[in-house]
Amino acid sequence: MRAASSLLRLLTLGCTSVCVAQGTISDGNTSWSLGAFPPPGIFAPQFADLSASPCVTDILRESRWLWRTNTDLNARPFLDQNNAAFTSSFLGNAAQMDWSDVDLAGLVDARWAATVRSTGADSGFVEHVMTLTNISTTPFVGRLFFYADFDFNNSVDDDLTLPASSGPDRIQLGDDHPCGGCAEMYGVDATAYEVAPWFDLIQRIQFDGTTYSLANAGLPFGPGDFTGAFEWDVVVPAGGQFAATVYLGHNDAFADVTASATNSGTATPGAAGAPTLTPVAGVPVLGAPYGLALSEPSGQAVSGSVLFGLGPQVPVPFCGITLHIGAPIAAVTVPMAGGAGTLELGASCDPTLLASSIQTQLFVADATGPCGVDLPLVASDLLTLVFGD
Predict the structure, then answer these.
(1) CA dist 259 to 41, 241, 389, Å?
(2) For 164-209, what is each residue's pLDDT tens digit?
């Protein structure tokens, strides 16, 4: 169907008529680029993870904002050639594009602001905010659309939506490759959504000559060549403003919650000291893999048990040992060698985990603990994980 393109190729495509603004913003290993894309003059933002993984190059082939009044037969993309009063800037991790009198229709000014944020070694997102200002003397009544064509892991025909996708404002995406990971489209407070194979959806929105509105349909999708869109029904009074926000994430489901990993409480030591449970690196970003490091100072343990709970955290002392986990929901046995081990937690884009607090505590067999041979255990303190971004 289509050849998946590299970020470099998309950035170096030439314009045969009118060129659009071009530039790149980045933060850490995550970048978003605005380049020319056929047909000339249509914005084609690229959101790419630049890590060394061979499975990950471009995950967003193309996207665009579009608008129409309630009586227009097609939605129109925001193009720079449609009016002379267009300005743009790309600096660091932020870009801004401004239109004065979009399409010279005498209806709205527009500002598109984009900000990139890296949230880990292989995760990040780009925030898009489109703001419409009514410059007419009557209310503006219309539709605002955001459309995206994901080719996740630089593949075309094997994208699929994940079970957490429900619309109307969150869609999670994976594919049939063994690479793992996920992508997310999050249209904050969108009125409607639609998912369909390329080129069907953009055909209906932009080219069919109808006053098309999204159908809240298409989930679940795939495997196939994914495209998705959000719609906002807009009523802007004279002189007023309306803003729509979209987050596109790679191994990151946007939460607007600060992820954290915090140790607290009291550990229970043996003769050589207390075991520890700490993050391998960083904080738990929703959608990204995460690891816990197990350690016990005697070096004798061959395994450890990590307990997980959802709280509330109520310390329970027994026989000199403190259980910090409230309402344990799971226990995982982890092999240890030389007093050390690692527990890898799988990645999930499920938005039900957003801002959730998960408690973890490590228990290791050790007869030198406070209960001796009657209950040969020692324990770490409490490690609380808050999933965010």
Answers:
(1) 39, 32, 5
(2) 777 788 898 877 666 666 788 899 999 999 999 988 999 999 999 8
Other Cβ atoms closer than 10 A to 174:
23
Question: Who contacts 75 (Cβ-Cβ below 8 Å, separation ≥6)?
Answer: 66, 67, 68, 143, 145, 205, 206, 212
C-alpha closest to that of 155 among 130, 177, 136: 177
Neighbours of 16 (CB within 10 A): 11
CA distance 157 to 176: 9
pLDDT above 60 for 149: yes
d(CA 148, CA 39): 16
User: Which among 246, 355, 341 has a CA at the least distance from the CA of 299?
Assistant: 341
On whether the CB atoms of residues 267 and 281 are closer than 8 A, the answer is no
Helix, strand, coil share (%) of the chain residues, nearest 5: 5, 50, 45
Per-residue tokens: 387: 């999933």
Domains of the chain: 7-250 (2.70.98.40), 260-386 (2.60.40.1930)
Cα angle: 145, vertex 150, 153; to 5 degrees: 160
- Asked if the model's pLDDT at residue 274 lies above 80, the reply is yes
- The separation between the first and the last C-alpha atoms of the chain, rounded to the nearest angstrom, is 35
| pLDDT tens for each residue of 332-365 | 999 999 999 999 987 666 767 777 788 999 999 9
Q: Residue 62: what are its φ and ψ, rounded to 5°? A: -165, 150
What is the SS3 assignment for 37? coil
Over residues 10-31, the pLDDT tens digits come to 222 222 223 345 688 888 877 7
User: What is the per-residue pLDDT across 33-91, written as a single tens digit (0 to 9) for each?
Assistant: 776 543 333 333 344 433 334 455 556 777 889 999 999 999 998 876 555 578 889 99
